[in-house]
Amino acid sequence: MDPTKAVLPPPGSTFAQSVDPLFNFLIIVAGIFLVIVISGVIIFSVRYRKRHGVAQLSAAPTHNTALEVTWILIPLVLVMIVFLWGFKGYLAMSVVPKDAMEVKVTAQKWFWSFDYPDGATSVNELVVPVGVPVKLLMSSKDVIHSFFVPSFRLKRDVLPNRYTIAWFKSTQVGEYNLFCAEYCGTKHSEMTGKVRVVTEREYNDWLASSAAAGEGIAPAEYGAKLFVSKACHTCHSVDGTPGNGPSLLNVYGHEVKLSDGSSVLADENYFRESILNPRAKVVIGYQPIMPTYQGLLKDKDIDALIAYLKTHSDMEKEPGE
Ligand code: CUA
Predict the structure, then answer these.
(1) Which of 12, 49, 91, 175 has the highest local Cβ count within 10 Å?
(2) pTM value?
(3) Which residues are near ligand 1 (CB < 6 Å)?
(4) Going by C-beta distance under 8 Å and a sequence separation of 6 or more, which residues neighbour residue 162?
(5) Ligand 1 centroid vs 191 CA: distance in angstroms?
(6) pLDDT digits 0-9 by tens, 188-231
């Protein structure tokens, strides 16, 4: 049985071939030294314990050349093996293949968004064709996050004001967990997503359906989907429970009190402004932490979200009617 099976998730990218053997080597070497050191501690403390009638101290040896050379050479060889092995893997991870498809990754509190070459976008779900090298051009809109896909053996920090680059080549169709691996505030632990590796054909279908999203279904129904897929629901409930943002139950058509003491009627334009420029009118009692959705939502998406929020209001009629 491979003891590391319990530690590393099943591999999903080509990096596993180089990372996993090194990881196993480190575990095994560390295990061997753990046994040697702990047995030494136990054996010596029993053997050289204080006994009655035995002279207290004998003179300590000053040095032992053979022993000292051994305890320098063995660790030196071991760490050089780890260094060279790791450096080889690091190079492979750093050099992006020329034919890689590029996806722009944007991290912000507290979700991931992805922009694909032909204009498609997605939130918290990266969709890629299997076996195609994918280059990730990553940046953050606020604090440091870290893009971590354990199955791909891939982790890289995502910084504000600077691009970081990572790449991977998936080996199997499937769904893989995506985590944020850098503490980034209240909802860091919920900043998760999926990498969905699909066949080339499914990928093309997905691109096409993403372009046509929302056509053929009622706006409110499409809005309900967006509310989840664009991660609105991570901060806003629609049942009255307050979260990081105010609940959106019974907001449409009502007066909303703002943090500057004024109030505003929550109509379509208020919703639109709050989606695109969330810090313009902040609800009293809440922090101005919502990121802008400018560029992430098309007009028809915003229309659909508003239609959905209207279904959660007791004032579905036009305000003032
Ligand atoms: Cu983003 Cu932790």
Answers:
(1) 12
(2) 0.71
(3) 107, 110, 145, 180, 182-184, 188, 191
(4) 139
(5) 6
(6) 999 999 999 999 999 999 888 877 776 667 788 888 888 888 88
